[in-house]
Amino acid sequence: MPNVDLIKHMEDPLISIPKEPPPCIIVVDTREQKPYKFKTPTIKHALVTGDYSVRNFETDMTVERKSLDDLIKCVGSQRDRFMDQMRRLQNFKHRMLMIDCSWDQIDMGGWRARKITPNHVKGTLCSIMSMGIPVTVAGDRKRATDLTARFLTGCYRREWLWLRKRLMDRLD
Questions:
Q1: Torsions phi, psi for 23 (to 5 deg)
Q2: Is 134 inside a domain boundary?
Q3: 3-class DSSP assignment, residue 166
Q4: With left for phi above 0 and alpha for psi between -120 and 50, is residue 132 left, alpha or beta?
Q5: Tens-place pLDDT, residues 55-108
Q6: What residue spans of the chain are helical by DSSP H?
Q7: Which pTM value belongs to this model?
Q8: DSSP strands (E only) in 15-114
Q9: Helices 68-75 and 118-130: crossing angle, nearest 10°?
Q10: Domain region containing 53
Q11: Side-chain-facing half-sphere of 114: CA atoms under 13 Å
Q12: What is the CATH number of the domain that holds 89?
């Protein structure tokens, strides 16, 4: 969905379109239990898919976040629901699965779900990557927060500038 500023211009061509996008506002899903704390402005809103998106671009970009504990559940008892979630994620132009632990933590194993091995987790992540979904194993929550913000703001800027160019081309 185009940015509100661009919609205003489509309705009234006398409204000028800024050369740079307005500030990015990250949308945090209302169901997110331990949301990242971004430096970028945020709002809470229910998202259909994912935990984070950008205001006015909720159908174009999303990030699904998993802690190590969440990921283990998704590989085990909640696998069917998780894979349905990943299939929905495929429909987004800009999408990412953000894991806020390290590969070393995955390799160590030793979690409560003893039937789930590090190879199960790595196999599931490789399966998700083969679906065309980028998987980022960030190392820790702080880095995951930073990378999520950078990903979303970068996607937002590119999409906004592309929409602006498209609209300007139509006016010429």
A1: -55, 140
A2: yes
A3: helix
A4: left
A5: 999 999 999 999 999 999 999 889 999 999 999 999 999 999 999 999 999 999
A6: 4-11, 68-75, 79-89, 103-108, 118-130, 141-171
A7: 0.88
A8: 26-28, 42-44, 52-54, 61-66, 94-99
A9: 80
A10: 23-152
A11: 0
A12: 3.40.50.10130
